[in-house]
Amino acid sequence: MHRRDLLVLTLGAALAGEPLLAHAARQDRDYIVLEKPLDVPRGTLVKFFSYGCPFCYRYETMVEPRVLPRAEAAGLRFEPMHVEGRGEYGATASEFFALCLLRDRKNGISPSSSKSLFRRVTTEIGFAYNRQRERWTRGEPAFVAALCAAAGIEPAEFERARSSEAVASLVASWRSARETAAVSSVPAYVVNGRYQLVMQSIKSIEGMAALIEELARLP
């Protein structure tokens, strides 16, 4: 089965409300243990994603609003990390998303919140890329203009911020984490820096939430 067909079936079943996992989580079937753990605190749910990934956009808009509250109730802090490899302006997107995430942190806002600047921008850019087929063919300035319009900031402000130590450090940490986890496809979710969900095994939104809750309890 093609990945796209699998995702359609997965999301279709999820929205139909299939039941929870009927079994304990199975290593190498429902999740894998990373050979080298991510350098994140315990109590973290990492998501690797790309603005140029249609599956990431669908999970962000259709699945995460129901899964993330359960994950946070289980004691997990949501930590999204942008992967630069998809989309022509991946590096620029990482810098802008990092800026948004840092502003959310400064304001005490989770990236899962509807008030999150990060989530607003990733959702709007994801919609433009994946639903409207926008490719910003006039170059990076057009892409930056779209990012800034979504965030409500001026391009000059972003140009100053993108070279800051804080933004550069966060983007570098995302690159390092991706290499550590050897992420080959997105979206990818990792619980407590060790347990990566096998996306093909997920049959419903409830099942995904239950799997995350179970993995959060593992040592």
Structure explained in plain terms:
The protein is an alpha+beta fold and 219 residues long. It has a single domain (3-216), classed as 3-Layer(aba) Sandwich (Glutaredoxin), CATH 3.40.30. 52% of the residues lie in helices and 10% in strands. The chain has helices at 3-16, 54-73, 90-106, 117-130, 140-151, 155-161, 165-181, 205-216; strands spanning 31-33, 44-49, 77-82, 188-191, 195-197. The protein has a 5-stranded mixed beta sheet with strand order 1-5-4-2-3, sandwiched between helices. Helix 2 (54-73) links the parallel strand 2 and strand 3 (77-82). It is globular, with a radius of gyration of 17 Å. Mean pLDDT is 93; it is low at 1-6 and 13-20.
Q: Got a strand count? A: 5
Radius of gyration: 17 Å
Helix content: 40-55%
Which residue ranges are poorly predicted, with pLDDT under 50 across at least 5 consecutive positions?
Answer: 1-6, 13-20
The helix-strand sequence is HEEHEHHHHHEEH
CATH superfamily: Glutaredoxin
Query: What is the count of helical runs?
Result: 8
Strand order of the largest sheet: 1-5-4-2-3
Shape: globular
CATH class: Alpha Beta
What is the second-level CATH architecture? Answer: 3-Layer(aba) Sandwich
DSSP strand content: 5-15%
Class per helix and strand makeup:
alpha+beta
Please outline the helices and strands.
Blueprint: H1 3-16, E1 31-33, E2 44-49, H2 54-73, E3 77-82, H3 90-106, H4 117-130, H5 140-151, H6 155-161, H7 165-181, E4 188-191, E5 195-197, H8 205-216
Parallel strand pairs: 2-3
Antiparallel strand pairs: 1-5, 2-4, 4-5
